[in-house]
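Researcher: Structure prediction, please.
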Amino acid sequence: MSSRFIFIDMQKLFRLFAPLAVLVLLSFPAQSQSLFERLVMPGDLIQGHADLQKDCSNCHESFSQGAQPQLCLDCHKDVAADVVAQTGFHGNSPLAGANGCSQCHTDHIGRDAHIVPLDEEVFDHTQTDFSLTGAHAAIPCAGCHEAGKKFSQAPSQCVDCHKDAEPHNGALGRECADCHTATDWVQIRDFDHSQTRFPLQNSHAGVACIACHAGEVYQDLPRTCVGCHRIQDVHQNRFGIRCDSCHVSTKWARIRFNHDQDTDFTLTGKHQQASCNSCHTANVFEHQTATTCVGCHQADDPHNGSLGSKCETCHSTEGWRDNVVFDHDLARFPLIGLHLLVGCESCHVSANFAEIRMDCVSCHQADDPHAGRLGAACETCHNPNGWEFWLFDHNRQTDFNLTGAHSGLKCESCHLPTGPVDLSGSTACISCHARDDKHRGGFGRQCGLCHNTASFRGARLQ
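Model: Predicted structure follows.
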């Protein structure tokens, strides 16, 4: 502070000029105070107070030095407000509060005088509302205090000085100190994102601000996964927007979805190895995924639908081709003999299993060498172990025992292929051997009187 002050002691001046004052008062009673004050005024006021010089009572109360500070504050209301609120330099400085205004700000020293005796080299900025910290401590006074303006009019908000250097273009508001420090403008303090509606957890904690706040936008941003990661959605929106149903913020590729617990379709066998896209080909929230075998495997059905849609009746999820689980022995037609080696499609040509017939001729009519002459009861002679294995016992199952040469004959030898077999016909020898009768009927029709089945030629007379 400057030590050059001029303090006017009105009482001393009055005693010094008392005789002259009496003469003046007696000579000019109407202008006594004004003339007296003019006589004792030590010099012109500063330019800012020039209009007050016409009347000393603007700043002084006669014969009362203690009234002067209040008169100053009555005029300088901004300083008075700081003193009351203890803000600004005049409200924070101990010197300003303990002394009157004239201790620092003298006047009557000429129009061009400067009565703010501030020493910039030693001024303690902590006595203001803006302490110089960090990089601010090295800034010259002129960097913030514009020439021709009061020191108290210097800006105190970051944006007031750094607006042109502000990279956010005002998008983040005026509270720069929420993120930046005075030590280094580029250095960003740890912003507590947990106080926002989107706490940064796991992998999000290491993401650069600009990755989410593109274009310096910090309000009304999406908080759903798909809001930021839609371009990375490998499912192409087929699984909807609830990414957190399957994924976690720890690692995008890690899936936490439990198909067995979270759905009504438990994954067993080969289904556990199938990728999600194998079954979920459409939006799972708009289209219900089929849970039947044929719903997914219709294109792979080698039966082309001929065996119906209940694939699980025969197949299991352990293997579509190698694990046929249907037990035909539990059906009305147990598989025995060569039937065990026959493919399902050989008999089940229709998708309706219940309509299939179980008699031999239904499947083997085209293979019948008898052309239907021996009827439909194939099992009478044949069995499933082989078509050529005969089970028919002519001696027990008919009234005509096969003896002698008859026992080696084929069925067709007697049962002629000219029409259906008539089992109710005659069993007399002449019925089959009329053409072989050398007697031409001369001995009658009872061939057995002379011949036997051992040999037709060897006749014996009874």
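Model: Residues 1-8, 21-33 have pLDDT under 50 and may be disordered.
Researcher: Thanks, that helps.
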